[in-house]
Amino acid sequence: LYNKIPEYFIDLYVPYFKNLKINPDILDYVNQFVDGWGDDVVGLHIRSWYCDRHRWHSNELFEKEIDKLDKDKKIFFCSDNGDVQKHFVEKYKDRIITHNRSLYNSGNSAESGHNKDVQSTTDAFIEMLTLSRCSKFIGTYISSFDEVAWWLSGCKSEVIIPKPNNVPDEFERRFFKLGN
User: Fold this and answer.
1) Is the Cβ–Cβ distance between 75 and 52 less than 8 Å?
2) Cα 5 to chain centroid, rounded
3) Distance (Å, whole) CA 80 – CA 149
4) Rounded CA gap, 149 and 146, in Å?
5) C-alpha count within 13 angstroms, C-beta hemisphere, residue 132
6) Facing residues of 30 across strands?
7) Around Cβ 48, how many Cβ atoms within 10 Å?
8) Which end of the chain has the lower number of beta carbons within 10 A, N or C?
């Protein structure tokens, strides 16, 4: 709900995120990775889901948002799926910036599945932290990855969350508790 969160709660919780003790090697890596980006790079996080929510995934949903950007705007891309990354790298070519890591196409291997590999989890965190350094990012509907990145940004990043057309109203009412 990003922009709908009362300032009271932002002021209350941001200090907790700022006080997280992040491994200095990870911080140094992310700082070097984003050095010089400024507002020149937009973040893009696409979760393809390895559960029932997969039916809500659509590359086109994110392409519509990318196509609204200036054509020379670079895009930091992160995802839970190697095929999705390949699609966007092939379509947007040198506009896409990625953190070099292993990606999978199975819920049992992806960090969003049941992977217990420390490096995969660390790489996902590096991407989340990098996403938080983008002043603007496009994220995945109901993904906690994007929300944590936003909190890590100090709630300063502009966040665009394209809503899939096929999300039942009942789910949204229950998920966001917007009504009966």
Assistant:
1) no
2) 19
3) 15
4) 5
5) 23
6) none
7) 22
8) C
- Per the listing, tokens 């919780």 go with 13
Q: Which helix (H) or strand (E) holds 170?
A: helix 169-176
Of 76, 44, 74, the closest CA to residue 162 belongs to 44
- Identify the CA nearest to 27 among candidates 121, 129, 100, 117: 129
Element (DSSP H or E) covering residue 111: none
- Cβ neighbours of residue 60 under 8 Å, at least 6 residues apart? none
Beta-bridged to residue 41, according to DSSP, are 74
Whole-angstrom distance, CA of residue 61 vs CA of residue 167:
13
pLDDT in tens, 64-97: 999 999 999 999 999 988 889 999 999 999 999 9
User: Which tokens go with 10?
Assistant: 């932002």
How is residue 148 written in tokens? 């944590």
Quick check: 113 pLDDT over 80? no
d(CA 42, CA 5): 23
Residues 6+ apart with CB under 8 A from 93: none
